[in-house]
Amino acid sequence: SAAAAATAPRVNPNAPTEETVLSVEHYTDRLFRFRLTRPRSFRFRTGEFVMIGLPREDGKPILRAYSIASPAWDDELEFYSIKVPDGPLTSRLQAIQPGDKVLLGKKPTGTLVLDALTPGKRLYMFSTGTGFAPFASLVRDPETYERYDEVIVTHTCRDEDELAYSTNLIRAIAEDPLVGEMAAGKLRLYTSCTRTPHPNMGRITTLIETGKLFADLGVPKLNPETDRAMICGSMEMIQDVKGLMIAHGLTEGSNAAPAEFVIEKAFAG
Ligand code: A2P
Fold it and tell me: Example GO biological process term (predicted)?
């Protein structure tokens, strides 16, 4: 009846679910990672992002897009985040402890996915800062190694401490029972710093332009016949690296029209 319908509770099928914080690890005063429970029904493609957030006193949750840093086969969900002292979400999110609740959106999406690229020989993943997050997922996915002979991840940060997450994660892949063997001999991490001395000092754009990146890796310069790229960092970084890809003859792809490189903004800020 109309009366019964009016009193039935309204359930929004798209409302975020409440997940439990399983672990939190702080790397620097600007960076941390956390792991959440993953609902059985939560499906995503490796490299995608989803809305993450916290409830607010006024009842309206505060949500921001976050790349999922764990692979699709993992029982848990991992996220890598910046801490912004006055950031509406990250100022509070940085204080979470195991057992706390975090909101998880229901609709993961994104373009840093293997299906948005045409087949190739060598896959580059160019990242700065928290832009490494989607690549943390992709380097732990067996499909990455089924599709490419070589996987080169670059991570550039202001200083060495900010490289801890990527460096530890890539090192641990050698021991990973699922992808360790597949990644051996294929996966390489190239790190650089811009504000403190480092053997590879400089922005990734400079390292590409001068050719130092390719010389250090012992690979030919970028070639649309063989090379594919994924780019994730600040808006400016994406635009600049994208310009270099186009200058080398690579074409931007999407889910609807796969091509030679794809881009995504590193969200959390
Ligand atoms: P820089 O120190 O020269 O600004 P952030 O922590 O601010 O997000 O920056 C992460 C890294 O991205 C820093 O090493 C920074 O270099 C670098 N970066 C910033 N803008 C660009 C850009 N337009 N192209 C390439 N790298 C950039």
Answer: cellular response to oxidative stress
Pocket test for ligand 1, best of 158, 191, 235, 244 (most atoms within 8 A of CB): 158
> Is residue 95 located within the same domain as residue 122?
no
133 lies in the same domain as 40: no
What ipTM goes with this model? 0.98
Q: Whole-prediction pTM value?
A: 0.95
pLDDT tens by residue, 102-135: 999 999 999 999 999 999 999 999 999 999 999 9
Report whether residue 205 contacts ligand 1, using a CB cutoff of 6 Å: yes
Q: What is the 3-state secondary structure (H, E, C) of 66-133?
A: EECCCCCCCCEEEEEEECCCCCCCHHHHCCCCCCCEEEECCCCECCCCHHHECCCCEEEEEEEHHHHH
Question: Which of the four pLDDT bands, split at 50, 70 and 90, describes residue 8?
Answer: low
Residues 67 and 159 both lie in one domain: no
